[in-house]
Amino acid sequence: MDLFLAIGIKFLDRVQCWLLIIFKVCMAKLYFRHGTVGSAKTLNLLAVAHNYRQQGKKILLMKPNVDTRFGKERIKSRAGLEMEADILIANESSLKQEDYSGVSCILVDEVQFVTKEVIEELRRISLDFDIPVLCYGLRTDFKSYLFEGSKRLMELADSIEEVKATCHYCNRKSIMNLKHVNGLAASEGPSVELGAEEKYFPTCFKCYRREIEKAQIIRQQQTKGCETSGTDRGQRSQSKELHPLS
Predict the structure, then answer these.
(1) Is the model's pTM score more than 0.70?
(2) Domain 28-164, classified CATH 3.40.50.300, yes or no
(3) What angle do CA 160, 31, 97 make, to 5 degrees?
(4) Cα–Cα distance, 63 to 72 (Å, whole number)
(5) Catalytic: which of 82, 84, 92, 110?
(6) What are residue 107's phi and psi, to 5 degrees?
(7) Residue 181 pLDDT > 70, yes or no?
(8) For residue 206, what are the contacts with CB-CB under 8 A and spacing of at least 6?
(9) Is 211 one of the annotated active-site residues of the chain?
(10) Residue 95 in contact with residue 70, Cβ under 8 Å?
(11) What's the whole-number mean pLDDT along residues 60-78?
(12) In a 3-state reduction of DSSP, which class is residue 185?
């Protein structure tokens, strides 16, 4: 009798383990798919959205309300594909008011621009409503620091995937977002600057560092040139005051 009881308990333990495994596999997850500028993140998002809709499934497309590059309610890729956003995220309250019944998937574009509170709300929605939430965006800014939304996703996401791209200058994998101002690489300024995508380039760290150092040298030379020019003008002005007839 004790033997049968032991076998039964062992069998139930195994069944419980398998049920836990199945539950973990089937459970909806919070995904963070990050990549550098120009890595086709938005194109990837729109392709996923298209696939769901082709199957007749309901999805919700979201984006931060600060992203107005292609129109306030448009999600558009560089390849030209676009869709209309269902929800513009201002803060976490924007998400709490929604009805998620019947939704098969939530897709969020430019997620780096949302707050950590929004990420925490997306985490809750994924669990409470059993809906997969796929977030796309940049990991770091042009100064190499994590965005607020991206940082919280790195901490909370069930799955973190990289959308790969190559460096603008070489064939290495890009991991940095290089910003150009007046044709030179920049390492200072505001992290959030929308509507100026042509200023940003995907780079590997080696090329990123080279361009930053090169820009610093050029700016130093320009500063010295301005100082020298100003000194020369001052000397000429002083000379005219001393020799008015010359």
Answers:
(1) yes
(2) yes
(3) 150
(4) 9
(5) 110
(6) -120, 130
(7) yes
(8) 170, 172
(9) no
(10) no
(11) 84
(12) strand
